Amino acid sequence: xxxxxxxxxxxxxEILNLLDSTATFENKQLNLANGKLLATLFFEPSTxxxxxxxxxxHRLGGDVISLGAKEASSVAxxxxxxDTAKTVAGYADILVIRHPVEGSARFVxxxxxxxxINGGDGANQHPTQTLVDxxxxxxxxxxxxxxxxALFGDLKHARTMRSLLHGLSLxxxxxxxxxxxxxxxxxxxDVESNKLSIVETNDPNEIRKNNCEFVYVCRIQKExxxxxxxxxxxxxxxxxxxxxxxxxxxxxxxxxxxEIEKSIDKSENAKYFDQxxxxxxxxxxxxxxxxxxG
Length: 294
Ligand code: CP
Hints:
By secondary structure, this protein is an alpha/beta fold. It contains 11 helices and 9 strands. It has helices spanning about 10-25, 50-60, 80-90, 105-110, 125-140, 160-170, 205-210, 230-235, 240-245, 270-275, 280-290; strands at about 35-40, 65, 95-100, 115-120, 145-150, 175-180, 195-200, 215, 250. A 5-stranded parallel beta sheet has the order 7-6-5-8-9, covered by helices on one side. Strands 2-1-3-4 form a 4-stranded parallel beta sheet, sandwiched between helices. Helix 1 (about 10-25) packs across helix 5 (about 125-140), helix 1 (about 10-25) crosses helix 11 (about 280-290) and helix 5 packs across helix 11 (about 280-290). The structure holds phosphoric acid mono(formamide)ester (CP). Phosphoric acid mono(formamide)ester binds near residues 48, 49 and 253. Phosphoric acid mono(formamide)ester (CP) binds near residues 46, 48 and 49.
């Protein structure tokens, strides 16, 4: 694996190897990446992706440089993405990029000589989030066979959902996926798998009717709506309640706003902060793989 740009670029074996390798990085402080430098180029806000990559590199014994806010770099003077990336690629050994334009990480990867990781490109892909999600499910459930999972929320705009569905399909294992979204925010699925049973609905009551074991929630992405009031109206009507999900485990890539009823936070089925913590060993495994660290 030279870059990690889309979950679709990697095979079932590579995914399973990364998940196995992740388990060996949990709670470790190593010096495998001694003398190596990871650069983060984030053109959109991030807490988990950027900081867990930085933590992962520190835990591998490497160092980190970060472009920081646009206003603090020469991007503010009009420097292009490519010139910025080429410059930073001259300093670092591996690059993580988040950018609002779909395909931007691949464009950078085609033009620099170091490994590039896509930390999210518009509504397109967020492959390391998918690895975090798969690792979290495997850790909690032990296996993927016959998993019953609901993907809930703004499925039209959420790159995490699109990436996760691709990741699940790549595992080539029988699973039941319920896609639950408000009307008009359905996912444009292009997943082909004869192992997945995929059912779409606008009715959250289907979650309990289908005995879903996991409910993976995402927020209504108001920044991708032309009318913010429309986003707010939809978000107010589409919120996860305890009654709606029963005993299902709740996952969320975070950040969340108020799409999960507050009382769910206290439930032992709320696993979204454990999921966020899994970001560190998963990204350690990804960096170690791309840098061929022994
Ligand atoms: N889940 C995720 O990508 O979070 P951030 O936007 O905070 O990086």
